[in-house]
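Dock acetyl coenzyme *A; give full complex structure.
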Amino acid sequence: MRHSRIAGVGGFLPPRVVTNDELAQRLDTSDAWIRERTGIAQRHVADPSQGSSDLALEASRRALDAARVDAAAIDLIIVATSTPDYIFPSSACLLQAKLGVKNCPAFDLQAVCSGFVYGLATADQFVRSGQAKCALVVGAEVFSRIMDWNDRGTCVLFGDGAGAVVLVAGDRPGIHSSVLRADGTQAGMLSVPGNVSGGKIIGSPYLQMNGPQVFKFAVKVLDEVGREALAAADATIDDVDWLIPHQANVRIIDATARKLGIPAHKVIVTVDLHGNTSAASVPLALDVAVRDGRIQPGHRVLLEGVGGGFTWGAVYLTM
Ligand code: ACO
């Protein structure tokens, strides 16, 4: 039977760091408020010259190096992003050209903060069906571009970055199970309700959300979908070596882990240093924990995403 497994992981954060204190110099907020309510201490912000495909390129190169795979071997590119370089062409096609890869399918996938989990589950289907042997799955975002930097309720939460994995075919898993869910009736809870029409922005180009509602919804569905993914693999909570939930807020992460019954020392947290990088948050956290040696080959990892749409999902895998 054909399976897919992660052969290499890479991450990239733009060098410019914005601390809470820097934000507090021009907004009615404080380092203490942001840390206490969110666990966030700082975030990275991309240079205006960098698009999400540029961040994706750096993360992809690092993932390919880690996998010891040449870019020419890639036969599928999925970029999960809600902040693409352009309306079109897709950031995935731009990334393909920057990597010097030709002909393979390349497309963007839009599931907001669940995007990487959606992308990984999609690539797994391509690999298991024999349509791809070596897929590049990237989460890349420049959420700094869709922040109203005068809105203290949202702009303190997000950051820019990219994370990537190389997913290859193999005869043992790899990915054991994936579960994807969505509920479009909850679209208004978290959105950027604007578009471009006739040369003008119609609606709002800035992120809007109902924070307390998002908080409750996220904890509920991350618990449910994590359990569903484990059940689909005939696994239990005790089988999980590491939990990597979407990095939105340390209180959401703590509450999710508590509900699932996973102890804090098995939970990877990067939101303190990265902020919420949306589709990039899960692969960036995976990259940090692989590189610092916590996640080792053979470890079983539960990845979870939740975000606008609303969308949510989980992938359970062996590294
Ligand atoms: N600094 C200081 N005060 C602030 C700030 C800030 N940055 N932001 C909001 N406040 C104020 C509010 O104006 C409000 O003041 P008021 O009582 O005078 O009206 C007060 O703090 C409390 O506001 P709440 O929104 O009730 O604060 P809460 O404790 O719920 O925390 C937060 C807000 C951090 C947004 C929380 O609701 C949350 O984390 N929600 C989840 C949202 C999230 O993580 N979104 C990320 C995207 S979603 C995703 O990725 C799944």
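Observed: The radius of gyration is 18 Å.
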